[in-house]
Amino acid sequence: MSGRALFAAWPRYRISIAMIYRICDAVMRRQTSTSSSDRRVHQPSSHLRSMMSVITAVLVAVGTILNFIVQGFKRMHRGYAKYQVIKYHHVPCSPLTAHRLSIMRKKILVLDLDETLIHSHHDGVIRPMVKPGTPSDFTIKVVIDRHPVRFSVHARPHVDYFLSVVSQWFDLVVFTASMEVYGTHVADKLDNGRGILNRRFVSYIYYQ
């Protein structure tokens, strides 16, 4: 039985075990009440009670083992799904829609860079947004105040596919509050020679 089928069938298994336990308990109670009214069946009732206790213990043990197995399958399934490759099925536009898009001027879509498209940190600084030991997607080296600084950049999952799709419908503009030299290098890496991030709007924030 596969893990998914076991997940689906597990509630039925639990209900069946509970029903068997209740039936055994009811039979044992009825036999106990009968034995109290008739002492001649006291010995068979004691034997039946011990047998019911054994059956109950076995059912509890089986339920515990099944629960342990199901929890293990769930952990394995979560770990497998975490690293499973997501496949996209691109549906092209109809000829009429493609013609309309070609004659209409594209609207502008402004995309925030930091903490939206990417997450980055420079050497010596580790933020809790990224699990320690996670390798970066790429690194850039820039000169800030005549000091070389290396940034480790983590791209948002599937950001390349996202940019390639929305660039068909919009003119993309990248916004960042960081320094221009940093934003330019990161945008060049994300563009990867496709020419979809040519327009950039860099904003500087000064505190006085």
From TrEMBL:
<keyword id="KW-0813">Transport</keyword>
<dbReference type="InterPro" id="IPR050365">
    <property type="entry name" value="TIM50"/>
</dbReference>
<feature type="domain" description="FCP1 homology">
    <location>
        <begin position="102"/>
        <end position="208"/>
    </location>
</feature>
<protein>
    <recommendedName>
        <fullName>Mitochondrial import inner membrane translocase subunit TIM50</fullName>
    </recommendedName>
</protein>
<comment type="subunit">
    <text>Component of the TIM23 complex.</text>
</comment>
<comment type="function">
    <text>Essential component of the TIM23 complex, a complex that mediates the translocation of transit peptide-containing proteins across the mitochondrial inner membrane.</text>
</comment>
<dbReference type="InterPro" id="IPR036412">
    <property type="entry name" value="HAD-like_sf"/>
</dbReference>
<dbReference type="Pfam" id="PF03031">
    <property type="entry name" value="NIF"/>
</dbReference>
<dbReference type="GO" id="GO:0005744">
    <property type="term" value="C:TIM23 mitochondrial import inner membrane translocase complex"/>
</dbReference>
<keyword id="KW-0809">Transit peptide</keyword>
<keyword id="KW-0472">Membrane</keyword>
<keyword id="KW-0496">Mitochondrion</keyword>
<dbReference type="GO" id="GO:0015031">
    <property type="term" value="P:protein transport"/>
</dbReference>
<keyword id="KW-0812">Transmembrane</keyword>
<dbReference type="InterPro" id="IPR023214">
    <property type="entry name" value="HAD_sf"/>
</dbReference>
<dbReference type="InterPro" id="IPR004274">
    <property type="entry name" value="FCP1_dom"/>
</dbReference>
<keyword id="KW-0811">Translocation</keyword>
<feature type="transmembrane region" description="Helical">
    <location>
        <begin position="50"/>
        <end position="70"/>
    </location>
</feature>
<comment type="similarity">
    <text>Belongs to the TIM50 family.</text>
</comment>
<keyword id="KW-0653">Protein transport</keyword>
<keyword id="KW-1133">Transmembrane helix</keyword>
